[in-house]
Structure formats: structure tokens, C-alpha cells
What does this fold into?
Amino acid sequence: MAQGSPQNSHKQAMPSRGSEWRRWDLHVHTPDTILNNQFGDWEEYLKAIEAHPHVRVLGVTDYMSITNYSKLKTFKSSSRISNIDLLIPNIEFRIAPPTDKATAINIHLLISPDDPQHEREILNALARLDWEYNKRRYSCLPDQLMALGRAFDSSIKDDGAALRAGVTQFKVDFTGFREWHNAEPWLKRNSLVAVATGQDGLSGFRRDGAWAAHRDEITRFSQILFSGRPGEREFWLGMGSPEDRETVQQLGGPKPCVHGSDAHEIAKLFRPDNDRFCWIKADPTFEGLKQVLYEPGGRVHIGPSPPVYHDQARVIQAVKLSNASGWFDDISVPLNAGLVSIIGQKGSGKSALAELIAYGAGSWHADEAGSFLNRAGSHIQNLSIELEWADDTVSEVKLWDDQSDANEVRYLSQKFVERLCAEDNIGTELVREIESVIFSNIDPTDTMNASSFEELRAIRTEGIRAEGDRLHQDVIRLIREECELTDNSNKLPDKKARIKTLTDERDGLTKQLPKAASPEEERIQKELQEKRQALNAAQQAAAGDKQKLQKISDIRSRVSTFQSQMTRFHSEILTNLKEVGIPEAEHASFRPNFPADTEPPLVRREAELKRLLAQREGDADNPAEGTIRWLQRQIQTLSERESADKARQEKVKVIQTRLAAIATEIERIQAEITQIEGPGKERLEQAHRERIEAYVAFFQNLKREHQTLEELYAPVKTKLASSSASEQEEELAFSIRWDANLDKWLERGSVLFDQRKTIPYGTMQDLGNAARRVLAPAWTSGDPEKIGAAHSAFLEEFRKPELKPRNYLRTGVSVQDVLQWLYEVDHIRLSYGLKYNGVELEKLSPGTKGIVLLILYLGMDVADSRPLVVDQPDENLDNESIYKLLTAYFKKAKTRRQIILITHNPNLVVNADSEQVIVATCARRENGLPHITYQSGALENISPEDKGIRQQVCRILEGGADAFLRRERRYSLTEKHT
It folds into this structure.
């Protein structure tokens, strides 16, 4: 390389994997270093460097001079130290200490070698940095420094000793140094200020009240700190206590810490204490070094080895394409292990590369309408796709051969994201994706061997939901019982009126009885009346016995049915007993059964009733007195003796028979009235209370289900809380809510009412408004007591005495129908979902739904370490939304999984700090077919021909230049040193 030319070409003839970890030593002295030179000759030094192939960048350091940098640069130009990609001039200055008790502070200028005239520019600037001694000013050039040394010590004769003396004494104060640096436009544009933090730096003088501001100003002025201590690095990255973070912000924000060996002898070359090597994730260029300013935590690492975050078996390091019929050259596109952003104009082949990767990994879906492969597949059917993985395995497939079922990447196509985030897609597929992520975050020991989230939820809530069904059925049963009791109660006036009617009829019939012709006939009539009443009573008693016999038969049937249910229950629970390890000998304990045989008491009672019934009937030949047969014979005998006047006898018989029936009916009705007014009334009140209690209990049970789901979703909530970026105000939260489909409920109720009439609350619209005001807030509150109170308050309108149901219900609709509607619970359910910044998922725009989906995959889906291939998730989002909502998640996720992103958004590319950018370009061949090519490299890659990656990001992506400025302003980098 000729003197004065750049050390490295900005052109990239070959595709680059972008920003990768390389070892840099930014503080290395050379032979002839002005102070503390313990090196041998230059040849020994060059061989020592060449023996260290791992170090790629050197910060060639000397005190107030670049002489040795220029010498080493000349050696490199003549093909020595070819293992070193970049030499950076590192000029070390000694700043005057604030007190005599402190040592001088070392401030370094790391200067870009990109300008072919950079050495001349540096010397020109150094010539304008001067210091006064004994009323004479000396500049910071070698001959001037030697003059200063001789002026300080006139006994010095040797030039080297004079230079050392001059450098030792040349200590400008900090304010003067800062003013000089700010007054040098070229130097300021092309250098980075680094300050040491040890005893020869910021720790070299005490932080007392008199000099705290002085130290703070030096710190603010610096862009980089030289330190290898872990605690110090964490402090300057803002990872300490809140007080420490506030201090860092006051001192200019987070700063990168770099380290070097500070070697002054061969034995120390590239060997810092404790193996605190400096690793920088960037191109080996000065632009690469500048990346540590923008990403001080992610771009620089101090330690024995570079950080390895990824599972190498799940990192694609290259995709090879061949036999593409001219659509692609036979190419190999290297891929970075971090965030790979694929950009390009519309139709340039961005999605093509993503689809080919997905196809090669067995993750592409043929049903993607309008996809590249479905449109172009017939033209490239011989295409061969080969994926090289970082663990040296290879996946190879020919297009349209059967895909592997390995599903080795998580592929989110553009159509897939659009479909999930469409306006009309509130649940279904998006919910299944959410469930899948949730399930992956549940501890395997808590999955109960379920294969899906839906199955696990069913297992956890099965018993609770069964109890909910039972309570709902109890409400329906109690409504039915209450309506029956109410119907009976409503019949009370009719029953009392019936008694009066019967009494009047009895009195009238009694008056119509013909008078007996003789005392004997009167006696017989009286006896006949008694016998007929006794016969009626006996027959009623016998009917009661037969009814009891029928009930015994019903009991037998119900017992038999219940025994079948118990047998079925035991059969069903046996599987569970075996699964949990209950010994077979103890299975009988779980067999439900009656404590004793139910048949004997039924048989005994049946026999008693049959004997009693036979006794009531009486013997056919010789019936006992008082039996039915005896009474029938007595009546027959008395009837024959009653009167010779057959007409009068028949009339007496009819009247007496009717009087007996009236007496029996009055007795029965009176018993019914007594039942209604006594136990019936009590049961009606009790059934009403039980109905309300069962209704409230249903929601108490639903609350238990809510609590169970809260436990089930606890890992998800914790993961969401921990995955949220601290600098973001927005919050992604998981919520379980009580949903009430009020419109559906009102629609079902509307068919019950004759809306031409005045209904409770006036009209159906008024009723709906009242329900929205009173019921809806309670139903969705999750508070059973509040629900019960609101429901009771809502029903007050239905209880108004002036509103008779028969006046406003449609024909064929009963009060029971209305009550069952009022106590419905089918429209109330628990649902779960995501809230973003307090807004429910279904209320978000499609673009914001896309954000939620990406946050799930980026922030929560930590169990999946497969490469994540995402095609244009930012389609509906503006740059500001991307910057605020997603960049932090991408930055965090890329440390644990490879992300391949097709995007139009510069903030995802720049502010998410893509390790690699692939630029897709499509041209037309002479035959009209497309020819797709890919150029790749790091964000820091620039080219004098304006073809570098950074220039193309700015040119292709709208707002690209603004995105770079935003990144610089994040730490106020554009405002420093002013």
C-alpha cells in the first residue's frame, strides 16, 4: 500500500457476513515509543504481531506523536503484518492534573485512517496545539517537543532524551485541550476521544468537592473509556443502581469501555491482565469502531472469548442457490447469526430469499397465495437450495421435491402476518398463535402432559366448569319449581272460591233432600249419608295407597338409573386412578354405592301398602266392617230398605252421593290451601332465595375459574413483564376478562315480548339501555356480589304490580320463559387476550396487531431458538411506531436467536442495529427474465462510489438518513464536544 493511501478498500467484491466479533487491541505501543520503551528491534516486533492471527485491529499508540504509527503503516504496505486488517493512530496526551497530589490524566485520540491525507492532517493539527514554558510557546511536534525538553533541562544533549523530557513536561490543561480539539474541524470529524479510568486517568485524582466538576467535564468530553474492569463497564453502560444510572446520564449517557494491552514490551503484546481481551462486533474499519458509540452494550465485549449467544445448530451461516435457470447466479449468500435485514426496491427479490430459506428449512407453506415461489416456481423448478448451518450440517433440497418436515425455521410470511392481523380476525388463528406462545412459556412440569394449551386449560378447569353447569341447571330447576309454586299460589283465590261454591252447593243439596216418610226412613237416610261419606274417604285413602305404590316403582327406576350412573362414573375414574398410581386394591374405595341394599325397605313398604290396600278393600266374601266392600254392601242394603218410593229413593241417592263427593273435594282443596299457605309459601320463598343464591354461586364459581386461569397464565404475565424494554412507556399485558355479549342476550329476549305493548322499562330499546347501564358493568366486573345486586336491581321493574306479564308477553310465552332468559349465563364467559398500552387486542389496528404478534415472538417465545424469518411485518406501521415499539425487542431477541427480516423500515434496520444488511436487486436479462442478485455487508460499510451498505440503506429506505441521525442522537452524540 502506498504511503498516504487508505489501509482498506471500502469495496466489497465478495458478500460479507456483516458485523462479526473480532479481536481489537486499541492500545499497543511499538519499538521507539517515546516513553518506557522495552521493545527490541522492529523485526522482532513484526514477527510477534504476525504470530497472533486472532488480533485484527491495532490502535498504534505513542505520546503526542504518530511517527511510529507511520512507520508501522509503511511495514504493512510492504506486505508485513498482513493478518492485521486495520491500523488506527492512537495519540496519547497527558493533561495537567488539577492538584500536585494527582497524576496527569491520559486522554487518547483515536483517529480515522480513512482519509489518504490523514497523517498530514494530524500533524497540522498537532502543530496548533501548544504550551507555554518560560515565556515561550512550544507546539506538539517532535522538534518542538525536543526544544521544550532542552529548555527544561539544558544538560540534555541526546535528541531522544530531549524528546522524552519534552513529552513528559508538555501537559496542557483540560480546557485548553478541549478548545484546541473543538477548533480543529478535520480532527473533530475524524477522531474519537478516549480517556483512561485507572490511576493514570479519571481515578488519578480524588473526587472531592473542589475538583468534581473538573472530572465531570473530562468525562462528558470523552466518547470512549479505556477500562477492562467488569464493574466499571457495567456502571458506564447504565446497568447499576438508579443513582448510578442518573449519574451516567448526567455525565453524557452510557459510554463504551474498550481495552488494550498497553504493551511496552514483547512479552505483554496482546496480553492484557486477566485475559481481558477487547472484542468488537463490527467491520475492521474506523466506521466499525464508531459503532460502539451507538451500541456501547451490544457492540463491545471484554473477556477471554467473544460472546456466543446462539445455538450453533440453529444458525444458518449461508444459503446456496444453484440451477436457477438464470433467475439467480449460482451463489452463496453468507448470513450473520444476529439480525439480518433484507432490503430492496419493490420486486427486487427480498421475499424470494426469505421463501427459499423457509423452503430449504421445511417451513414454507404452499397455500401462500401470491408468494414468489407460487408465481415463479414453474420457471425455476430445477433450483437447488442448500442451507449451511453453523454446526457444519447441511440441509439440501430441490425445489418442488417433498419438503422436509423438520420445520427448522419459524417463518412468518407477509400474507401470514396480514391474515392474522386483519380487521376481521380477532380470534381464531391469532389466538392460536398466542396460545402456542403461552404454552411454550409454561414450565414442563406444569403442563400435566397436555399436548396443547387448549388441552391443558380443559384439564385445569374441567371440575370447575362441571360445577358451573350444575349451578346453571340448578337455576333452571329452581325457576321451574318456583313457577309451579307461584302458579299454585295464584290459584289460591280460585280454590277458596271453589270451596265457597261447593259449600253453597252442599247447602242447597241438603235443603233438597226429601223428608223421610217415617222415623225409620230418616234413620236409614242418615246412615246412608254416613256410609257414603265413609266409602268416599276409604276410596280416597285406597287411591293414595296406590299412588304410593307407583312412587315405589318410580324410586326403583331412579335407583336403577343412578346405579348405572355410579357404575359409569367408576369406570371413567378408573383410568385416572391408574394414571396417578392408586393401587388396584384400593380402587373399590372410589366406587360410589348406597350404604345398604335399597330393595328390602322398598319391598317391606310395598308389602305394607298392599296389605293396607287389601284391608281397605275388604275380603270379597266376608269383608270386615269399615272396608270398601263392606261399606258398598251396607249402602246397597240400606238403599233397598230406604223407601218404597223409588223416585224419591233415587233422588236421595244422587244427592247423598254428591254431598259425599263435595265433602271429599272440600277436604282435599282445604288441604291444598293449607299446603299453599303454609309449607308451599315457605318453599316458594326458599326457592326464590335458592335461585338467587345459585345464580350468584355460578359467578363465584366463574371467579374460581378466573383464579385458576390466572395461575395458568402467571408465567406468561411474568415473561411479558420481564421482556418489556425498560425505555418504553408502552406495555404489553396479558388479561383475563369477563365478556358479556349483551346484544346477543337482548336479541334472544326480544322475541318474548309483544313490543306493541308497554313492557318493563317501556320499550325494548329502553330495556336495552337499562341493561347496558345496570347489568353490563356488573357482568364484566368479575365481582359476584356486584352481579347479584345489579341483577336484583334490574328485576325490580319486572316486579311492579301494574305490569302484568300476560299483558306484554307474546302468545305462548310464559313467565318461566322470561325468568329463564333473565337468568341466562351463556352470554357471559371468560376470555383472555392481550392488551397493548391498555387497549384490547381486538380494538387495535392491523398494524398494531402486527406489533403485538412480533412482541410475542421476539419477547416471549424464548423456548424457540430456531431462526425467525419475518417478511415485512412493518407494512402498516410508520417509522415512529417502529422506533418506539419494536426496535428494543428486536435488539434483545437477536442475542438468542437468528432473525432474518425483510423490511422497508429504516428504524428496524438501523436502530435495531442489524448485524448484516442484504440488498436485493433485480435487473432484466435480454430474454426478459429477471436476474436477482444480493449484496451484503454491515451497517458501517461505506464506499467512495456511494455503493456501500450504509449509503444504500439511506437511498433505498425512506427516512434512512434520519434513522442514522436518530441513532446518533440517542446518546446525544451529535451534540458532544461543542
In short: Residues 24-129+172-302 form a domain with the TIM Barrel fold (CATH 3.20.20). The radius of gyration is 48 Å. The chain has four domains: 24-129+172-302, 313-409+866-975, 489-698, 742-826. Confidence is low (pLDDT under 50) at residues 1-6, 8-13, 725-730, 973-978.
